[in-house]
Amino acid sequence: MSFEIALSGINAINTSLDSISNNIANAGTYGFKATRANFASLYAGSQPAGAQINSLTQSIDIGGGAMTTGRGLDAMVQGRGFFVTKEASGVEVYTRVGIFGTDQDGFLVDASNRRVQGYAVMRDAAGVPLEGAGLGAMGDLQVPSGQVAAQASSRMQYVSNLSSDWVAPTAAFDASNPLTYNSSDVSVVYDSLGSQHTVTQYFVKTATNQVTVHYTFDGVANGTPQALNFGTDGKLATVPAVTLAATPAGATAMSIALDYTGTTQYSGESRPSVNAPNGYASGTRVNVTLSEDGSVIAEYSNGQKQKVGTVALATFPNEQALQAISDTSWTTTSTSGTPLYATPGTGMAGELTVGAIEQSNVDMTSELVNLMTSQRNYQANTKVISTADDMMQSLMQAV
């Protein structure tokens, strides 16, 4: 019986050594979670029969350290949750390794070339993203690889302090004569083809609390001069509704609404604080980055940024029951439960740290101590077998 008991101990220690060796081998593997072999006693009825490995416990709930990379498509999960990826066969695989990139078709993929799953951006019939429309359907995240279309300017916010110290010019306004106006400012706008145009505003003091604005579009007078009337508190008495119209050659007719909300007439320097027309020229994609809320942002050569989707995270009722597979990934089992999908930082899902990768959570000191302990236990069990063998030989010689 002693032979069998000692043999069961050696077999259990060998299994434990496999776990320890695997942990040590993966001490430098991103997103790796250490496992622990759990010993249990064996009994044959009421008689002791040795030891066995009852289970392997994964330390999924223990996070690894953060390694800063500074790369815009690297991310690590702080807390619960796994990145959701899909293999070519359609099987979902879950990982903590947030090393992403785009393939030749623009799909967001992980380091094993599996497509990352997430929520698409809601778009209108023309394909333009809808702001504040919520999350779209979950599936493969694809970043458009072509040019982003130009957007014609339709509004312009302008805020400035039009100094009360100005003196009204004595001559009639003439855009070519700086002595006929107190100040001017130029704004760059875009037509439907993405071509740039200039809107120039000329500010002329016409009364104690009044400034009249004259407009030109590409140097040609445009619209009707607009009087800005200020109260004794230096603020606009009323915000006028100003619209400039123009039809550039070959482009769609433009209508630009000007908003002077916040413009003042205080003593001192005249300085614009906001000069912000909307619209932009066409551009090509130059970069893709992730945000802490999981948003996938495409950056274009015209300076525009567009959200193209949101990375999904999966949590499970029983994470310990997930089955570990190659490439530092996991698959579901019958006891892990159905995955619960969410965006980073919502529900039970953890938040993202962008520009960093989760390191292995293996504690090398503990593993080396466990390795020495296993060696001593192995030696003890082999000593039992050797001693039992000597006793049997002595018994046979005595007979």
Automatic annotation (TrEMBL):
Keyword Zinc-finger in annotation: no
Record GO biological process: bacterial-type flagellum-dependent swarming motility
Subcellular location: Bacterial flagellum basal body
Keywords of this entry: Bacterial flagellum, Cell projection, Cilium, Flagellum
Domain of life: Bacteria
Domain Flagellar hook protein FlgE D2: 161-280
GO terms for cellular component: bacterial-type flagellum basal body; bacterial-type flagellum hook; cytosol
SUPFAM superfamilies (UniProt xref): Flagellar hook protein flgE
Domain Flagellar basal-body/hook protein C-terminal: 355-397
UniProt xrefs under Gene3D superfamilies: Flagellar hook protein FlgE
Residue ranges annotated for the Flagellar hook protein FlgE/F/G-like D1 domain, each copy included: 76-140
Similarity field: Belongs to the flagella basal body rod proteins family.
Function of the molecule: A flexible structure which links the flagellar filament to the drive apparatus in the basal body.
Name of the protein: Flagellar hook protein FlgE
